[in-house]
Design brief:
The protein contains nine helices and nine strands. The strands form two sheets. Strands 3-2-1-7-8-9 form a six-stranded parallel beta sheet, with helices on both faces. 34% of the residues lie in helices and 18% in strands. With 245 residues, the chain is an alpha/beta fold. The chain binds ligand BV8 and zinc ion. Ligand BV8 binds at residues 25-27, 30-31, 36-39, 42, 49-50, 53, 104-106, 122, 162-168, 191-193, 195-197, 216-219, 221, 234-236.
Length: 245
């Protein structure tokens, strides 16, 4: 449906909803200067995320995979949350536990913008996990002293605390995300190409439970055709417009 004023329509739906959920992707951090995976300029040394963000790539060449993550950690450390992140933190302030933020991003910018409860489907680039003793730690050092970094407890090799292709999402986090999407009347999907599963199944799940879906994206995605409202433009501009009271 293309109402005469889609921003006003979105504002009304947010005001009327008892429970709201939001799902974000790399596009919400683009205006913070962090390249996305699949839109222009998102590549790194001509690698694709699907080639590097896998257990096989890490087993074959941990140094190159860590060079990619160390490069991203440096970018993210220098980046700041943008108005899109702040708007979602404001929505959480207003709705409390009637709002659930779900993200595919591993950059931690939602937390830095003040969001308290963030369901991180794909983990967090600031966590490391030792492949020998399984210890999980947060580690904010940029750059890392050596690649691959070593475990402080046992000297084993560390891996980034993120979910790679072919790996299961953290079970409890995924269940909470599904539950929030089943219960919500409105799901806002911002800055995702909607091609990575199971995250991309959340929008159809919301609609199958009678929720409306608003998509905020600079481009068309596989979700655009089924979204109840498509707001075409940068999330850093649109989210404040539909959320600000
Ligand atoms: C699993 C790691 C099973 C962390 C990532 C065939 C068909 C269907 C599915 C599959 C298949 N083959 C394999 C699968 C499953 C696979 C998958 O979905 N593959 C895809 C590529 C087809 N999924 C998995 O493997 C998942 N695990 O299924 O496990 C299992 C179960 C039990 C036991 C064992 C196994 C794991 C998926 C997680 C993979 N890890 N990242 C990291 O390094 O970041 S995914 C990677 O893509 C990122 O995490 C990112 O979050 C994610 C999604 O990308 P987006 O966030 O959408 O970013 P993208 O660049 O694509 O798009 C940006 C969008 O923003 C664009 O639309 C652009 O237009 C827009 N935009 C740009 N600027 C702005 C903007 N929008 C608004 N404002 C702007 N300013
Ligand atoms: Zn260890």
């Amino acid at each position: 449906m293309t109402p005469d004023n889609p921003i006003e329509q979105a504002r009304q739906w947010i005001a009327a909803a008892t429970r709201v959920a939001a799902l974000t992707g790399a596009g919400i951090s683009a205006e913070s200067g962090i390249p996305t995976f699949r839109s222009a300029g998102g590549l790194w040394r001509n690698f694709r995320a699907e080639d590097l963000a896998t257990p096989r790539a890490f087993a074959r060449d941990p140094k190159t995979v860590w060079e990619w993550y160390d490069w991203r950690r440096g970018l993210i450390a220098a980046a700041k949350p943008n108005l899109g992140h702040y708007a979602l933190a404001q929505l959480e302030q207003r709705l409390g536990d009637r709002f659930t933020l779900i993200t595919q991003n591993v950059d931690g910018l939602h937390n830095r913008a003040g969001s308290q409860r963030v369901l991180k489907l794909h983990g967090d680039i600031w966590w490391t996990m030792c492949i020998a003793c399984r210890e999980v730690r947060s580690d904010f050092r940029v750059p890392l002293p050596e690649l691959p970094p070593r475990c402080a407890s046992c000297g084993g090799m560390l891996r980034p605390g993120v979910v790679w292709f072919g790996e299961p999402l953290p079970g409890a986090t995924w269940e909470q995300a599904e539950e929030a999407v089943r219960q919500c009347e409105l799901l806002i999907v911002a800055g995702t190409s909607a091609v990575v599963y199971p995250a991309a199944s959340l929008a159809p799940l919301a609609q199958s439970h009678g929720a409306r879906v608003i998509e905020i994206n600079t481009e068309e995605t596989p979700l655009s055709g089924s979204a109840d409202l498509c707001l075409r433009g940068p999330s850093g501009e649109i989210l404040p417009q539909i959320i600000e009271s």
